[in-house]
Amino acid sequence: MPDLELRADEAGKTAMAGADTTGAGAAVARLDRLALLGIAAELHRRTSLDGPGAYPADEIAEELGSAARHAWIPGHWLAALHDAGLVSRDGEGCYHGLHRPRRAELATARAHMEAAATALGYPSELPAMLLRSLALLPRLLGDEVGVQALLYPDGETATADAVYRDNLISRYLNGAAAQAVRELAGGAGRPLRVLELGAGIGATTADLLPALGGHEVEFYLFTDLSRFFLDTARHRFQAGFLRYELLDIARDLPAQPDKLDLVVAATMAHNAPHAGRLLEQVAALLAPGGHVILVETVLEHPQSLTSMPFALSQRDGLPARHDERAGTTRTYLSREEWLGWLARAGLRVEVDLPRDDDPLAALSQRLLVATR
Q1: Are 216 and 255 members of one domain?
Q2: Which residues form the Methyltransferase type domain (predicted)?
Q3: Three-state DSSP class for 172?
């Protein structure tokens, strides 16, 4: 393991304050199970899948009263339920034989889910959000409420912090990323120029800003698609070199070729219509020897099925994807796909964490640090 990767790994573990992660895989499975059973229960209540026939996904979406832009989501759920052995699918792609969760089974799954969330370091807001999303499925599908109501109830960020910051895997990844920035920041030979894409609530920013202490910074450009996040960041962060700008990565990145020393993209690059093209654009922005910090989920877990798909729907339905996800309902690229695109963009990977034998790998979230 290269020295930088080793030190980043050690810093990530320190950020977890010695937490026991040996049960991470089992905890993830329990969170996933509760989500799948909750979806199955909803389908039994509201569709013909509780009967003897077999039905295509589009008919199930119609029975559920799905808004046009969310009509792809029930099929996405059914595919996940099929993968988990909870529904059968015939040769024509029609579904039947849906498992019917009993009340006792749901109660047990809920108890296990709450214990699993605690084991993974999630505060109470995370299991509360998962249960709230299950209760709101009819309204979410009907586009009566948006996913923002789940992540930011009453405009508060505590739930989003639980998802993106206040848990073991986020503390590990942000701590490791901060160590990488701390070591790499001195290589520019001039005041640093930093761009963060889709910074959101600043869950990663909060760890990177202290890591820049002791380095001269020309600017740290904090960008997002939503003005809500920019306003939140202005109140949260005080560094004088911070700048704020609305930015849609699906349209245009800042025109600063060969100028930036660091580009940060934490849990957002998968939103690009073409992930590889985004990385090529990022590489073009970096000065020679500049770095990209990429934090990404590399596998969709069922626990996110009641929230994340609703954030991805476009006005005309299925998210526009032009990379390996084209024509599918996949949310994320795999680790191997990200590594391939980084290489094709001329970016050399310096850090790829967590290690394969680390229990945290079960959460399928990774830190990739690469250099132009």
Answers
A1: yes
A2: 195-292
A3: helix
